[in-house]
Each structure stands twice: as C-alpha cells, then as structure tokens.
C-alpha cells in the first residue's frame, strides 16, 4: 500500500467514525410495541368529563439510563390520576377548600405517527448538566400543535427541574413550539410527575403564584395601593429592569398574593399563603384553584392549542 492509498484509507476511516458518532446523537428509535400503550389509552379514554390530550414522550439518555416503556406508562398514569382525582379532604391545604379544583385533563399517547415514545441516545460527554440545555436548544422549534411533547431527560440541568414556554395570556395567537422538559437523574415518579404538572401549568398560561418575578424586595404600601385601588406603581429596579406591583400578581383572582418559600414581608396584607399550590416553589405541591383550572382549560380551547385535544 502506497502512502497515498494509506492516507486516503485513514481519512475514510476517520470520516466513517465521525458520521457514526453523529448518528448516535441523532438516532431516534420509535417503539413499535403498542399493545401496552393501547391498553393505557383505552383505560383513560373511558374516563368521562375530562379533556383528553395527545402526548408524545421523547427520552434523551445514554442507553443504560432509558426508562422502560412500563415505567413511562406508570409515570403518565400517575400524572393523569393527579389531574383528575380529587384529593382526600385531609390533604387539601387548610383555608383553601373553597377554591380547590382539579384540572380534569388527561394524556393519551399519540399513535398516529408511530412515535408515541421515542428514545434518543446521547453521547457520554452530554450525560452531565449540559444535556437539558442541549436538548432544549435542539428542539425548541419542534411542532407542538398536534400533541404535547414531553421531553424526559434524566440529567440535572442548571435551570432547575423543568422548563417550558408560557402560553400567551390570551392563548389566541401564540404558536406552540417545543414542549415540556423535565430533568431528573432517577425515576422518582412523584418528583417527575409534580414537575411535569408545574410546567404544564406554565404551558397552559399560568404564572407562579408569586407572579412574574422572583420576589426579593417589596413595598407593602405600594402593594396595598395596587390590591385595594388598582394603582400599579414601580416597586423597585434591578439591573435596569423595572418591577411594578402587577409583576407580583399571577392574574388569577382566587389565588392569594403571596411570596415564595417563607418570604412574606406583608403578612397582614396578603392573608394566608397557598403553600401547596402547584405553581408555587414549595416542597409539597398538590393543588390548583378553580381560577387556575379555568385558565388552563381556556388556553387549551384557544385556536392554536385546539389540535392537541382529542375530545
Ligand atoms: Zn415555574
């Protein structure tokens, strides 16, 4: 073998190994075992009086960290149960029995495109804190108008446990792109399900119960003026960004004005907090209010999101 031939062979081998690596990152393997998914869909399809949405679960992982089909089914089953089954009385936060409501939304796997569950291998160098951001960047423009895309990424992310885009407040003209991203190293059904439901709230137009900013400073007199007289004054300014009184408002009438994780400087003004609300940052998150459920269902029925509804 001449040097030239040897060199071109070497280049060819280098090229093949490059494209193989590329393929590993992008390879999507649709599952074709549909019997369990059909059973799952039939079970939830029989439930009356709920809004049924099409769902696709996209997993991004190294091969040995993929959740099995039955683990994913159990996870979505627990999400559906939480969204449709009333809490026992003793689990409803005291003082909020009157506004407590369940969203009455369930997810059925979309089987029209044979991709109800997909698994995509990530190379080892992505199995760290950059995996969440990487998947999000790659899929932020994926079409979300036909089904809800649930990205399950078993690695931590510097941005927290989950991520999504908040629906436009009128829900009318916003394009749905991307989906709901949840990060977690282990399949703790409880944590992943709670995180998914929190992000679902954002996806369907809800702000945090403490509003549109993370509260760090507050002027109780100005907040009182906003709550009682509707006067929207500047509260404070940080790094050139101005925060007004209505930035602390989630625009839902039956959730209290409140602050996150024990930070409540104007206690007399805001009344009892709603710690256990799904849209708070507290440890126990188990309930929505009637106003929040109305908002989520209204956004779902808006023009751009109607496609994800089965019935
Ligand atoms: Zn959030």
TrEMBL record:
Residues in Peptidase M43 pregnancy-associated plasma-A domain copies: 142-300
Top-rank taxon: Bacteria
Pfam families: Peptidase_M43 (PF05572)
Protein name per UniProt: Peptidase M43 pregnancy-associated plasma-A domain-containing protein
């Amino acid at each position: 073998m001449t040097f030239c031939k040897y060199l071109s062979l070497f280049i060819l081998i280098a090229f093949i190994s490059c494209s193989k690596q590329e393929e590993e990152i992008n390879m999507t393997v649709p599952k074709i075992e549909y019997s369990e998914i059909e059973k799952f869909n039939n079970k939830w399809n029989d439930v009356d009086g709920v809004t049924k949405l099409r769902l696709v679960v996209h997993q991004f992982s190294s091969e040995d960290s993929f959740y099995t089909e039955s683990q994913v089914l159990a996870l979505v089953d627990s999400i559906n149960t939480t969204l449709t089954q009333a809490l026992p009385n003793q689990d409803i936060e005291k003082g909020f029995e009157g506004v407590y409501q369940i969203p009455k939304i369930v997810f059925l796997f979309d089987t029209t495109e044979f991709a109800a569950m997909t698994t995509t291998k990530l190379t080892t160098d992505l199995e760290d804190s950059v995996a969440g951001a990487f998947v999000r960047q790659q899929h932020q423009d994926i079409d979300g108008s036909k089904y809800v895309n649930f990205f399950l990424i078993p690695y931590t992310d510097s941005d927290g446990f989950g991520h999504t885009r908040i629906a436009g407040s009128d829900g009318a003209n916003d394009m749905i792109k991307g989906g709901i991203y949840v990060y977690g190293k282990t399949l703790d059904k409880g944590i992943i399900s709670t995180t998914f439901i929190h992000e679902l709230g954002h996806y369907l137009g809800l702000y945090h119960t403490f509003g549109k900013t993370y509260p760090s400073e507050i002027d109780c007199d100005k907040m009182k003026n906003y709550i009682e007289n509707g006067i929207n004054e500047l509260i404070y300014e940080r790094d050139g960004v101005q925060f007004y009184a209505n930035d602390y408002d989630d625009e839902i009438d039956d959730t209290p004005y409140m602050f996150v994780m024990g930070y409540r400087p104007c206690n007399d003004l805001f009344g009892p907090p709603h710690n256990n609300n799904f849209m708070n940052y507290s440890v126990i998150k188990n309930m929505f209010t009637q106003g929040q459920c109305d908002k989520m269902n209204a956004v779902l029925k808006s023009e751009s999101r109607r496609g994800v509804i089965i019935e």
